[in-house]
Amino acid sequence: MKILAITSCPTGIAHTYMAAESLERTGAALGHQVKVETQGAMGVENRFTAQDIAEADALILAADVPVQGRDRFLGLARILEVPVQQAIRNPAEIFRRLT
Amino acid sequence: MSLERPFRFPLAQGLHARPAAQLRARALAHPARLRLANDRSGRTAELGNLLSLLATDTRMGDPCRFLAEGPGAAEALADLAAFLAEVLEDDLPEPDTGAAGPAIPRILARAGRACFEGLPIAPGLGTGPAVLARTRWPDPGPGGPPAAEALALRRALARVQGALAREAGHGPAERRAILAAQEAMLQDQDWASGLAAAIAAGQGAPAAVAASLTRAMAGLRASENPYLRDRALDLRDLGDRLLTELTGADPGGITLAGPAVLVAAELTPSRLLGLDRAKVLGLVLAGGAGTSHTAILARSFGIPCVVCPEALRVAEGETLTVDGDRGLVVPDPPPELAAYYRIEATERRGRPAGPGALAMALHANILMPQEAAPAFAAGAEGIGLFRTEMLFMDRPGPPSEEEQYQAYRQVLEAAGGRPVVLRLLDVGGDKPLPYLPLAPEANPFLGVRGVRWYGRQPGLIATQLRAAARAARHGQLRLLIPMVTGVEEIRLVRGLLADATRTPLPVGIMVEVPAAAMNLPALAREADFLSVGSNDLVQYLFAADRGDARVARPEHAWHPATLRILARIVADAQGRPLSLCGELAGQTAMLPLLAGLGFTSLSLAPGGLAAARRTLAALDPGRCRELAERALAAESADAVAALLAQGAAGIPAGGLTDPDLVLLDQACASKEEALKLLAERLAALGRARDPLALEAAFWAREASYPTGVGFGFAVPHCKDPAATTPSLAVLRLRQPVDWGAADGQPVDMLVLLATPGAEGDATHLRVFARLARKLMDPTFRTELRRAPGPASILALLHQQVLAP
Fold first, then answer.
1. Were B333 and a residue from B51, B321, B545, B803 both cysteine, which residue would form a disulfide, CB within 3.0 to 4.6 Å?
2. Residue B457 is part of a domain; what is its CATH number?
3. Nearest residue on chain B to A26, alpha-carbon basis
4. Percentage of chain B with pLDDT > 90?
5. Does some domain include residue B724?
6. Which phi and psi angles does A77 have, rounded to 5°?
């Protein structure tokens, strides 16, 4: 599956990036194509392109604060919202719920 | 069967209606008979009776007991204990991230313990058994025949009146005012007739005096007016005198059998002076008149002191910890608290400066000989300014040569070979002495003060020079002349010194009058050393009376005019040892400027030494010089303040991390201790100005959700101005600690990130992000966990996180 994820946490200096790394590693191991956009203290990085969004099968919102640009995904049917900590501690469970 | 369970009442608001109702509901579920006994108020209530519960007048910290009788008593007590824990949580405000947050050590909340919050009066930490100073006069018992009692009273009144009149003849104005108030009381007809009536009715004279003054004091204490409240202490003093006359025993006497924390509603300076100071581990006061003078003494003697009326209800003999820095009194302190404070003390002791660090000697300013030993304990490298005026003030005649010799010797002995700069008597119109008559002056600060009267009245100063010369055998003594403007003044003092003694002593000058700064090349040729008195220098430079807030502004300290005259002084010092004493040296924000201007020695109040050392540890000499250059060219104090705020000099040379930021195999017993250790370590390395504010910033982040990430790792972090430098620290614990995380996993590896969050900090944030991602790599985690020492952890961080 082509899966997009956004990670974002209160201070934006640690959990955002741990969650991103965790989703990328586990997703790849499970055979998915995963792209993670981080919304942290350095701003939005690895921003999704229109093509990313058009081709995506699902979106994971691993965020403890409101994410920017949520309206980009109005056409996407499968959106899963989880706490950032779950993406760090139990990423496999997130992918299981998506598939 | 009857059981009881003691506790301290935990709710800040006391036992008010809501928790009382909850307590009642909880109690009704048990078959046992349940009661609450408040050992402070002495009242007991059935838990089932709401009104009687409220009537126990239970306040925070009160010693209380739950009493249980009958079937299921033990179960009921256990349930009530659980209730207390719940209701405590319920009553606590939201996690505090504000200024009040850092005051109370986290470890206390964790231990579920209450403490009293008061005003910090004198810094330091002391723990010991409470000794309660008697707040009420003892019951003198029944009197004799009324006629005899009336006669005894008349005699006592006359004697006390005579003593007051004698004392009112001299002494400082304040003391005279107090005595006058007491005399007025003695002459109060209503009071006299009240006493007479009480004695006629069969009361003994001591009982009548005690009762009438106790009533009068209660009336004054209840006043809204702080001045009137303070007068209660005067009446107490009067009562002590009268009762001493009547009974032959001092009723206000305090005796300390051993080291103790003294708890006193009121304490006059003379009572404190009368105690064996080595036995006073701490001081808890309710406030009142004389507080400030008592406070100055407490600070001088290094006795931690807190003003906290609520803490007066502790029990005699109960162990108390007095935290004079935070203003806390902790009854029955848990052992974890000592561990927490130990971390603080260890980390604040100061660290040896590394290579390339800024060289700055830190000396202490003292007023009283007793301050010397605590100043050296606080890390002073010498006494840079011993103001000797206090020895001469508040007394009818000057101290003898012997008395002065003993005082100077005490300082030199405390110094143990380190230098002591004794400033010669600096009095005059601004600090008048009753035995140094000077003509009235319209403007005492511009009048005959400091060295200016030495030639007119050489006797006083000759005595001081003789005493100093005798004391000089006990150490490294230097003499400092105040208010110098011309070379003839230095020659005068050298002449007086030669007359007084054959001991040659180094003689230096205060540079505190702008004329001295402008004439420094000539003065420096005659003086052995120079000391800038920044308080007076700024006052004279701006023609602004430093006691008048309408004209004296704090920003004068960093005004370009001040900086330029300081730069000129450094340039014209002719290689003479140069130091700066005064308020400027105690302002941490000024330190980069002073270092940049070329000062290599400062003298400041002992209480500021630790903060100054922390700030200096973080400074880079090159950046300080750059900052000073730009500040000298600035057009206003505001422009200089803006330069300082940019923190242009505040980046340590070490970068993001440091070998001292890798702490391996530490024995922390809790999350509180771990975060405490990290906050203190960052501050000790000059990476944070205020360790308590940094600690609070870490906890504020933990309040969103704990930063444990699994695998025994936690990533505590903050983006907060409390951190002055972006920092990365690693703490590996010997035993895992509970991190409060949702999964309940304990933590033994901490990777800590702190950044002030300033604009343009992307480089450090990028490193933090890379590190965060790296922590998801099991190999990296194992390597961190198994690294044999700090060097290998640093190497790991450099290769895998910092370098790419």
1. B321
2. 3.20.20.60
3. B776
4. 38
5. yes
6. -80, -35
- What CA–CA distance (Å, rounded) separates B165 from B183? 8
Final residue belonging to a domain, choices B476, B505, B534: B505
Interface membership of B765 toward A (CB under 8 Å): yes
Is B798 inside any structural domain? yes
Distance in angstroms (rounded) separating the CA atoms of residues A1 and B173: 89
Give the one of A15, A18, A42 whose C-beta lies nearest to B766's C-beta. A42
Summarised one tens digit per residue, pLDDT across range B691-733 is 888 999 999 989 888 898 888 999 999 988 888 888 999 999 9
Cα distances (angstroms) measured from residue B520 to each of B515, B576, B687: 8, 11, 38
Select the residue of A41, A64, A88 nearest B709 (Cβ to Cβ).
A88
Q: Which CATH class is domain A2-98?
A: alpha beta
Instruction: Say whether both B181 and B87 belong to one domain.
Output: no
pLDDT tens digit sequence for B25-43: 888 888 899 999 998 888 8
Task: Find, in chain A, the residue whose alpha carbon is nearest to that of B742.
Answer: A85
Q: How many CA atoms within 13 Å lie on the side-chain side of B631?
A: 37
Task: Please answer whether residues B156 and B245 qualify as being in contact, where contact means their C-beta atoms are separated by less than 8 angstroms.
Answer: yes
Q: How many domains does chain B have?
A: 4
**Alpha-carbon distance B392 to B399, whole Å?**
6
Question: Active site includes A61?
Answer: no
Q: Taking CB atoms and an 8 Å limit, are B769 and A38 in contact across chains?
A: yes
| 3 state SS of B285 | strand
CB atoms within 10 A of CB B102: 22
Instruction: Give me the CATH number covering residue B687.
Output: 3.40.930.10
Cα distance between residue B296 and residue B291, in whole Å = 8
Which among B704, B710, B769 has the least Cβ separation from residue A42? B769
Q: What is the pLDDT of residue B653?
A: 43
Residue with tokens 């009687």: B52
Q: Which of B501, B404, B497, B486 is nearest to B452 (CA)?
A: B486
Both tokens assigned to B773: 């991602």
Cα distance from A21 to chain B (closest Cα, Å)?
5
Q: Is the dihedral of CA B417, B421, B424, B427 positive or negative?
A: negative
- B676 and B760 co-located in one domain: yes
B498 and B384 in a common domain? yes
Phi-psi map region of B114: left, alpha, beta (phi>0 left; psi -120 to 50 alpha): beta
Whether residue B392 sits in one domain with residue B498: yes
Query: How far B132 CA lies from chain A's nearest CA (Å)?
Result: 49
Task: Give yes or no for a contact between B77 and B3, defined as CB atoms under 8 angstroms apart.
Answer: yes
Which phi and psi (to 5°) does residue B200 adopt? -60, -30
User: Is pLDDT of B410 > 80?
Assistant: yes
Residue B496 in any domain: the answer is: yes
B153 in the same domain as B86: no
Q: What ipTM score was computed for the predicted complex, to two decimals?
A: 0.94
Domain assignment of residue B151, given as a range: 146-247
CB contact under 8 A, B755 and A13: yes
Give the residue from chain B lying closest to A90, CA to CA. B710
Chain B residues touching residue A14 (CB < 8 angstroms): 707, 715, 717, 753, 768, 772
Cα–Cα distance, B413 to B403 (Å, whole number): 15
Global pTM exceeds 0.80: no
* DSSP labels, B587-639: -GGGHHHHHHHT--EEEE-GGGHHHHHHHHHT--HHHHHHHHHHHHT-SSHHH
- Is B692 part of a structural domain of the chain? yes
- Residue B561 binned pLDDT confidence (cut-offs 50, 70, 90): very high
Q: Which of B214, B247, B280 lies at the terminal end of a domain, its last residue? A: B247
Closest listed residue to residue B500, CA positions, set B448, B456, B463: B463
Residue B614 to residue B611: CA distance in whole angstroms: 5
Contact B704 A64 (CB under 8 A): yes
Beta-strand ranges (E) seen in chain A are 2-8, 33-40, 43-45, 58-63, 79-82
